[in-house]
Structure formats: C-alpha cells, structure tokens
Amino acid sequence: MTVRVKALGAILASTFVLTACEQTANTEPTASGADGPVDTTVTTPVTSLEPQLEQRPDIFAVRDMAVWDGRPSLGGPWVAHPDVSAAERVEITNLSNNIVTSAALFRRERALPGPPFQLSAEAAIALNVPAGVPVQVSVVAVREGLVEAVVVPAPVAPVAEDVVEPVAEPVEAPSEIDPSTPVEADASAEPAETPAPVVVEAVEPAQEPAAAPNAPDQPFMQVGMFGVAANAEALVTRLTEAGLPASGRPAGSLTRVVVGPAASTQELATYRDRLRALGFSDSIAISLQ
C-alpha cells in the first residue's frame, strides 16, 4: 500500500513539472512583440551633392583700406579695385566689426585718389561703413561649388497585408417554368415592327483657338548700371560664360547690363533665379521700349 502511494505521488509530481514547463514556453516573447510586428528596417544614410558658395582665394584675395564717397550708386552692392582683371563675385568682411556681405567685384582706375577699394552705397550700408571714413576690409572671391550632404531617410512603416475575404458565389433562383415544356406562340399576336435605322451624322470636333504667347511685358532683367564701360563689358562676359544672354545697352552716359529678352514669363523667372544663384539678388525686370 505504501509503495502504491509513493508511486502515485511521483506520477503527480512529474505531471505538475511538465505542465509548468509548457506554460513557461508559451509565455516567452516572440519576435513580433506584444503590440504587433517589430519593424526591423535599417535606414541607410544617403550622400548627395548640393550647390554652395565657397571661397576661392586663389582667384582674388586682398586685405586693404576701403571707402565710400557718400554718393548714391547703381548696380547693387559692389566693390572696385585697380588689380581686378575680370568681374567676380566676392565676400567683403569689415574687419572693424566682422560684418560680412556678398558683392560684385569690378576694376577701378588706378589714378583715382583715395584708398584702393571703392565701395558702392549698398555695400557700405550692408557693412555699416559711414561715408568718407576709410576702413580695413578683406575681399575674397567666391565661386559656386558642390559639397556633400548626408541625408538620412525616414524609416518606412511596415505595410499591412491586405486580407482578401472570400466572395460568395451567386445562387441561381429556381425557375418556375420547366425548360423541357415547349412554349406555344400566340397566333393572334401581331408581328413586331422592325425599327427604322437611325442615321448618325459625323460631327467634326471644334478646334480650340491657339493659345496666345505668354510674353512678359518686361522681358529683360537689369543687372546693373555702370559709368565705366570696361566694367560693364567685364560683367557681360561673365554672364555670357555662365550661359545667360547678356548684353550692354546705352543709357545716357551710363551702360546698362541686361539679360534677355525672355520669350515667356517662365523663361524670365529662370533668368531671375540664375542671376540670384550668381549673387545678383537685386536684379529687376524692365522693358527697354
């Protein structure tokens, strides 16, 4: 009797241990997580090239005194120096207050009195330079280049699979008429009249009127006005090399540098964006009529 009780106890203990192991195995976390599938997507950074202005001291870099004569000037912010051989885009730094601005660089006559650098009115205002007060500046040429930029794309959320529910097949309604029973025709019924054919005349589609050309009222972009013809010619050469239809037009005693004419408002907007990318943000649309 004692042996049977012990054997029965051992069997019950083994059963309890096996049940506990099964429950523990069923409660282990899965790779899907408690709230659904776990997104294991790994985002890889992407490297792209973006345009950016970079300094080119190998083209032009001079630190010297500059002055604004106090008179208003045309052509936006610019600076002139006697050692310039071609028009450039530069960054000017006022070394007394560390203010930096972008401007165009032109050549000035060496025989003119005063400091080597001559500032336009807009450049002097941007640099906080008072009229008639010489300040030391640093002028460095800049060119548009391409720099690497790392872009990390946003992780893509997992797309749930579409569940296609089964479509019930249509059930044909039982016919009340036995198809094997012949149907007798009604002798008294009159034969149906055959409808007359309908004649449809072909209609040619109306032609839409030709769209009028979207020509702008002011098809030229004015880049600057210059009293020195050589500076205007240097700017025309630079803009032409950049792929823009630039030209110099006489405007009294000055020379007006323009880009155009544009055949449409879209082309005019393209000229404006190209000029802004080159640093001529003050260019305006004009008409030469």
Task: Note the topology.
Elements: H1 2-26, E1 46-55, E2 61-67, E3 78-81, E4 88-94, E5 99-107, E6 117-119, H2 121-127, E7 135-151, E8 220-226, H3 229-241, E9 246-251, E10 254-259, H4 265-277, E11 284-286
Domain SPOR: 213-289
InterPro entries: Cell_div_SPOR-domain (IPR052521), SPOR-like_dom (IPR007730), SPOR-like_sf (IPR036680)
Region (Disordered): 170-195
Task: State the main characteristics.
289 residues, alpha+beta, Barwin-like endoglucanases, Alpha-Beta Plaits, four-stranded antiparallel sheet, 4 helices, 11 strands, 20% helix, 27% strand
Summarize the structure.
The protein is of the alpha+beta class.
Describe what you observe in this structure.
- The chain is α+β, with helices and mostly antiparallel strands and 289 residues long.
- Among the domains are: 50-148, RlpA-like domain (Barwin-like endoglucanases, Beta Barrel), CATH 2.40.40; 220-286, Alpha-Beta Plaits.
- The protein has 4 helices and 11 strands; from the N terminus they run αββββββαββαββαβ.
- It has a 6-stranded mixed β-barrel with strand order 2-6-3-5-4-7. Strands 9-10-8-11 form a 4-stranded antiparallel β-sheet, with helices on one face.
- A hairpin with a 4-residue loop joins strand 4 (88-94) and strand 5 (99-107).
CATH class of the domain at 50-148: Mainly Beta
Q: What kind of sheet is the major sheet?
A: 6 strands, mixed, barrel
Shape: extended
How many individual helices?
A: 4
In CATH, what is the homologous superfamily of the domain at 50-148? RlpA-like domain
| CA-atom Rg in angstroms | 42 Å
Instruction: Say how many strands there are.
Output: 11
**SSE succession:** HEEEEEEHEEHEEHE
Under CATH, the topology of the domain at 50-148 can be stated as Barwin-like endoglucanases
* Strand content range: 25-35%
Low-pLDDT stretches are 24-32
**Amino- and carboxy-terminal Cα gap:** 126 Å
Q: Architecture of the domain at 50-148, CATH level 2?
A: Beta Barrel
As laid out across the biggest beta sheet, the strand order is 2-6-3-5-4-7
Report the average pLDDT across residues: 76
- How helical, in percent, are the residues? 10-25%
Task: Classify the secondary structure makeup into a structural class.
Answer: alpha+beta
